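Explain this one:

_____
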Amino acid sequence: MRFLDQVAIVTGGGRGIGRAIALALAREGARVVICSRTLVELTEVASELEKLGRDAIATVADVTDEASVSNMVKKTLERFGRVDLLVNNAGVWLTGDLQDYSLADWETTMATNLRGVFLCSKAVFRPMKEAGGGRIVNISSIRGKEGCPGMAAYSTSKFGINGLTQALAGEWKPFNIRVNAVCPGPVDTTFGSGEARDETRILPEDVANLVLFLASEEAGHITGEAITVAK
């Protein structure tokens, strides 16, 4: 087990990509903290994690709120005493022409997708530094490398994540904290829901597998990268 007894926080862990990452980490031995704004979904995923024989915490947290993020990390440290891995997965999707966005639409997208990565990363820096290192994997998007009409806010936020990933990788390298990003193409997040799969899309598990690699010792030489996973 690559992550036996290591402690991982997965934001947006109640469904889709976040759920797949949390389950993959648990299968590799990690103790997993999942957070989102929806307790019902978190409870279901926590039950799945526990069935795998792993300790898990499901906590409601708003990644746009500094106090909420601090409380999430505090709960993690109180229960497990450390944070080895942070997966910044929480995000929102906004499409439409720029002239049709409200200011609130724009700011909500930036707050969740970009401010959330900033706040969560900052919150785990001290415990990771004190422990001698750690890993952060940010879930960006292929739209963070290629701007797309109708996705101005989303693309801008994901470009920002990639830039933040590179900056933090340089700043935190002296503390043995590696920071990378995964940039998925279209993901079939209905997989497992009983609906027909979309064969043109990658699976959440494909994203999870890349996250596991970047968080592993095998990738110990990789930091500051934004890696695309797509068909």
Notes: The helical segments are 16-27, 39-51, 66-80, 103-131, 152-172, 204-215. The chain has one domain: 7-229.
